[in-house]
# Entry
Amino acid sequence: MPAMGHARHAHDPPNYHCRRTPARPRPCESKSMSTHLRVNPITCEAHGLCAELLPEMITLDDWGYPIIDGNPIAPELLEHARRAAAACPTLALLIERR
Ligand code: SF4
# Structure
């Protein structure tokens, strides 16, 4: 075993620890991320169920298609939003983090 403080030899393992960059928060860990609702307009069939389950955030237009208020989902509504997304018959209601 080489003595401490020796010059690096070609057979020594590389010292990866010294090359590491400082840890940065991943985008998903950033505090600026928020959770939003989105409707896939291709798969939505205007059942209107989502507006019944989450009237705080979703209203319907004249044809029964949802209008999302666009605000981040408040923490107290997140579970309701998840239920509404799960209940959508065509899985058109999506929860996404931005
Ligand atoms: S429940 Fe689903 S299919 Fe029905 S209006 Fe809402 S998003 Fe569209």
Remarks:
- The pocket of iron/sulfur cluster is lined by residues 39, 44-50, 66, 88-90, 92-93 (CB under 6 Å).
- Residues 10 and 51 are 67 Å apart (CA to CA).
- The first strand starts at residue 35 and ends at 39.
- The chain has one domain: 27-97.
